[in-house]
From TrEMBL:
UniProt KW keywords: ATP-binding, Ligase, Nucleotide-binding, Protein biosynthesis
Enzyme class: ligase
Protein name, per record: Glutamyl-tRNA(Gln) amidotransferase subunit A
Reaction catalyzed: L-glutamyl-tRNA(Gln) + L-glutamine + ATP + H2O = L-glutaminyl-tRNA(Gln) + L-glutamate + ADP + phosphate + H(+)
Species in which this protein is naturally found: Spirosoma liriopis
Family: Belongs to the amidase family. GatA subfamily.
Active site positions: 52 (charge relay system), 127 (charge relay system), 151 (acyl-ester intermediate)
Xref: PANTHER family: GLUTAMYL-TRNA(GLN) AMIDOTRANSFERASE SUBUNIT A, MITOCHONDRIAL (PTHR11895:SF7), TRANSAMIDASE (PTHR11895)
Length: 453
């Protein structure tokens, strides 16, 4: 704990933590010391982790990277976090993230941008940017993030660490501040696949507080073995052939494909005919869900309240939300409200739901023939701070949304996926490679990720 506290202090410029629980972590460490001596310590005894600022931890403030949760204190602890605490994890602090987990660069946080430790002029990815940098820079052993469209895997790729998004419903969402409820997943970020697998195992499983959690048995993921037969692996042809993907990333991905073939596995290209509909479907549905989820932040029930005459309720809502939410969150609430409005509902929301089903069916067909689907995690390595924010990209938010092209599919269909490090580019920037597996095949996913690490 002391060593991490020193490092956190030395690396303040990275802005990875929004709050550090120094004294509490020390006390927790003392308690665990006693438990270790008594032989009663849990399975995570001594593991020092950080948690993304969207996870409720009773008695601690939680802000979702936003001004609107000013002065708000969590009233209860997220199920996933409680299960880690029950196994004697030490929580060292709360990690910076994009506001309400909306973003791919960690630049939309009310607490300012996070910097990539490989190059502080570059972004760490988002939205779990603080969580990924904290592991990258040795500020904690592992982090717990959330992944709605890539927010665990994309920053893991940009920071050269492991990010695991489980199957939708594998881990309870109780206590996770909702962004898009039918996409949101809690997931670990760690230095090794083993650490990520152990954290997953402990967080996973049924929970009375979240009816969408599966009752499928949880497995000892870290002990998973690959089947004793050649694997069948599909790779996304565009990931290694499209000129829209950085040349070094294409090369690095191709090299892994060649290695897998040399090891006797079948590795074949697939084309997703619906690839171009992934981002539109994702952004219509997630903004729709977000506009509904975020309606609870009204200036009355939580956190920030604008100064308005007491008699004017509508003005209070309007002013609190205008002042409390940042530009990207407001943009998405407006987009989502539009997609759900009476005259456009069928044209956008219903249509996107239908396309979601088609994407799921197309993905299922891939997995009828293959064990895994491989692709780069991201089309480019970490970009410069400010490079894709509205001002510099000609006010085009789509530039940022394109960073998610390879990660959103797993959330649209609810499948598990992992990003592992795959070398660096000529500037020393980390590159990630992603593997996706069928629902609840986390054991196989962990096994192949370990074999490829
Ligand atoms: N970058 C994506 C978005 O902005 C994904 C975010 C996430 O997974 N939370 O929606």
């Amino acid at each position: 704990v002391e060593q991490y506290l020193v490092r956190i202090d030395e690396q303040r410029h990275l802005n990875a933590f929004t709050e550090v629980y120094a004294d509490e972590a020390r006390q927790q460490a003392d308690r665990i010391d006693h438990k270790l001596a008594a032989g009663t310590a849990g399975r995570l005894a001594g593991m020092v982790i950080g948690i993304k600022d969207v996870l409720n931890y009773a008695g601690h403030s939680v802000r979702a990277g936003s001004k609107i949760l000013d002065n708000f204190t969590a009233q209860f602890t997220a199920t996933a976090i409680q299960r880690l605490l029950d196994e004697d994890v030490i929580i060292i602090g709360r990690q910076n993230c994009d506001e309400f987990a909306m973003g791919s660069s960690n630049e939309s946080s009310f607490f300012g941008p996070v910097r990539n430790a490989a190059d502080p002029n570059r972004v760490p990815g988002g939205s779990s940017g603080g969580s990924a940098v904290a592991v990258q820079a040795g500020l904690c052993l592992a982090s717990i993030g959330s992944d709605t469209g890539g927010s665990v895997r994309q920053p893991a790729a940009f920071c050269g660490v492991v990010g695991l998004k489980p199957t939708y419903g594998r881990i309870s969402r109780w206590g996770l501040i909702a962004y898009a409820s039918s996409f949101d997943c809690i997931g670990p970020i760690a230095n090794t696949v083993d650490d990520a697998a152990l954290l997953l195992e402990i967080m996973a499983g049924p929970d009375d507080f979240d009816s969408t959690v599966s009752s499928q048995p949880v497995q000892p993921y870290a002990q998973a073995q690959l089947p004793d037969r050649p694997l069948r692996i599909a790779y996304l042809r565009d990931g290694v052939e499209s000129t829209g993907v950085d040349a070094r990333i294409r090369e690095a991905t191709q090299r892994r494909i060649d290695e897998l073939r040399a090891a006797g596995h079948t590795v074949e290209p697939v084309d997703l005919s619906l690839l171009k509909y992934l981002l539109p479907t994702y952004y219509i549905l997630t903004t729709a869900e977000a506009s509904s989820n975020l309606s609870r932040f009204d200036g009355v029930r939580y956190g920030y309240r604008a100064d308005t005459p007491a008699m004017d309720l509508l003005a209070l809502y309007k002013k609190s939300r205008t002042e409390g939410f940042g530009a990207e969150v407001r943009r998405r609430i407006l987009l989502g409200t539009f997609a759900l409005s009476a005259s456009y509902y069928d044209a956008y929301y219903t249509k996107a739901q239908q396309v979601r089903r088609l994407i799921r069916e197309e993905t299922e067909r891939v997995f009828e023939q293959y064990d895994f689907l491989l692709s780069p995690t991201t089309p480019t390595p970490a970009f410069q701070l400010g490079e894709k924010t509205s001002r510099r990209s000609g006010d085009d938010p789509l530039q940022m949304y394109l960073a998610d092209i390879f990660t959103v599919q797993a959330n649209v269909v609810g499948y598990p996926a992992v990003s592992i490090p795959n070398g660096t580019d000529s500037n020393g920037l980390p590159i990630g490679i992603q593997l996706m597996a069928p629902p609840f095949a986390e054991s196989a996913l962990v096994a192949i990720a370990k074999a490829m690490s």
